[in-house]
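[Discussion] Sanity-checking designs against the backbone

I'm trying to build intuition for which residues belong where. Below is a C-alpha cell string of 118 positions. I'd appreciate it if someone posts a full sequence so I can compare it with mine line by line.
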C-alpha cells in the first residue's frame, strides 16, 4: 500500500476514535455512492454529520484542511444528498472537515471544522 494510503487509513482510524471521544456515534466509514465517498458519517444529538478526514505526516505540502477543495466539498454534498435519499429520517445535517497532523512520536493534532459551506 502506498504511504499516502497508509496515512489516510491511519487518519480515519484516529478520526473515528477522536469523534467518539467528542460524543459522536459513528454510523458508516468510507460510505460510497457511485464514484463519491464520505469518509465518516456520524451523529451527535439530532444532527447527522458527513465528515471529510484529511491527514498529513508533515506540513511540507501545507495543512491537511487546505487540501479540501470546493470540488471535494461538492462531491461530499452529492454523496450526502444520496445518503439522505436512502435514509430520510435525518432532518438536520452538517458537513464537516477533520484535519489531523501526525508528526513523529508526538500526539496527533486535531482541528475539527464544523458546518463547512461552499
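Best answer:
Here's mine. Compare freely.
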Amino acid at each position: 500500500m502506498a504511504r499516502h494510503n497508509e496515512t489516510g487509513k491511519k487518519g480515519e482510524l484516529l478520526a473515528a476514535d477522536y469523534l467518539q471521544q467528542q460524543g459522536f456515534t459513528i454510523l458508516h466509514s468510507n460510505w460510497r455512492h457511485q464514484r463519491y465517498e464520505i469518509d465518516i458519517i456520524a451523529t451527535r444529538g439530532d444532527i447527522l454529520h458527513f465528515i471529510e478526514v484529511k491527514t498529513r505526516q508533515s506540513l511540507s505540502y501545507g495543512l491537511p484542511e487546505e487540501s479540501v477543495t470546493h470540488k471535494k466539498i461538492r462531491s461530499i454534498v452529492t454523496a450526502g444528498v444520496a445518503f439522505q435519499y436512502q435514509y430520510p429520517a435525518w432532518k438536520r445535517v452538517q458537513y464537516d472537515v477533520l484535519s489531523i497532523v501526525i508528526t513523529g512520536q508526538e500526539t496527533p493534532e486535531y482541528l475539527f471544522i464544523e458546518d463547512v459551506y461552499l
